[in-house]
Write a structure and sequence with these properties.
Two copies of one chain form a homodimer. The first copy, chain A, is an alpha+beta fold. Chain A has a domain at 3-43 and 51-89 and 125-184: NADH Oxidase (3-Layer(aba) Sandwich), CATH 3.40.109. Chain A has nine helices and five strands, in the order ααβααβαααβαβαβ. Chain A has a four-stranded antiparallel β-sheet, sandwiched between helices. In chain A, helix 2 runs antiparallel to helix 7 (125-147). At the A-B interface, helix 1, helix 2, strand 1, helix 5 and helix 7 of A face helix 1, helix 2, strand 1, helix 5 and helix 7 of B. Strand 5 of chain A pairs parallel with strand 1 (50-55) of chain B.
Chain lengths: 203, 203
């Protein structure tokens, strides 16, 4: 199979698991591969505005399920990766921002910082960093499928409750997405998508 | 190589191309594979809040480059995929929304619509749909790499100018991201990332 056929096949096999088999441990190497895939994602200015909080202690899951409006995936999963969007660290005057920007702009740091400062002033940092986190999340879901681990992205949650439960300072970070990982209790359903001809236009 | 090793390898090989070799055509089958990867991306409620506008006519590129603050990728690329976030179509009363929601909620459409209506009322639809588009964009970038096509995501642009140039009604759709595709004039640089230990925390 060509590489692109293998990649499209992987994308077809990934599906959102709606209930996992509880009590199935996720292998450490699979979890690490999923996190590495997130780490390798691209980001604007190469800033990696994310952090991954991994909840593996099953005793923590029921309260997190509550904060996810009762969604069963949040309590039946083997691990819940909370993807946090960096907000305060993306301030043009933060040390983190300057370190990361300097990596990409070794030769022209002042120009890079000036351009970033202009971008930052014109941007809703919270919404922008949240959107960037989807790039990491997508890579994580694909890596999970490649490991034989099922996943479900959970976008519906009470951010304040998640923040309180996990001790996240929501002035500094936003909860972008929760990624539940485990072994699915059901198989995949049919993948329904709008036909490409309806989605695309050429100029 | 195991599937996960192949996937991580693919993710390591993807890089942001900063200048393409002009005049290199992208093969039709590669372009279609990239678009298919976008189409296969997951989305909240399975709503696919995106559309792909493909600019292949090189005569259109200089004005688009202008709207991208002069970024060379926008004019040297072989194709520019404009990823549009659906805003108006995500209204709970739109026909598109209802058709797509009915696919996922064949048996409990009323309950699905009520839940969606609540979500929609509490959500900045534009920011949400924009973020969803990043899932499609990430799959497209990976598919491009698997085809041997180089890519660069362009997040810096004047949305109003892009809208005017391409005839996009920005009340109905938002410009989420531009994805430049082609053959890179340079090779990849070093992939710099924050070490995983600094990005992750366990609970």
């Amino acid at each position: 199979m060509s590489e692109i056929d293998a990649v499209i096949d992987l994308m077809r096999r990934r599906y959102a698991c709606h209930a996992f088999r509880p009590g199935v441990a996720i292998a450490e190497e699979d979890l690490q591969a999923v996190l590495e895939a997130g780490r390798l994602a691209p980001s604007s200015f190469g800033l990696e505005p994310w952090r991954f909080l991994v909840v593996r202690n099953p005793a923590r899951l029921p309260e997190l399920q509550d904060a996810c409006f009762g969604q069963p995936q949040a309590v039946t999963c083997s691990a819940l990766v909370v993807i946090l969007a960096s907000v305060a660290d993306m301030d043009p005057d933060s040390a983190t921002l300057r370190t990361r920007l300097a990596r990409e702009h070794a030769d022209d740091f002042a120009a890079g910082l000036a351009a970033y400062r202009q971008f930052h002033a014109a941007t809703d940092t919270r919404a922008w960093a949240n959107a960037q986190c989807m790039l990491a999340a997508m890579q994580m879901m694909l890596a999970a499928t490649a490991c034989g681990v099922d996943s479900c992205a959970l976008g519906g949650f009470d951010e304040n409750r998640i923040g309180a439960l996990l001790g996240i300072d929501l002035k500094c970070e936003a909860v972008a997405l929760l990624l539940a990982l485990g072994r699915c209790a059901q198989g995949p359903g049919d993948k329904r998508r709008v036909p490409l001809a309806q989605l695309t236009e050429y100029r």
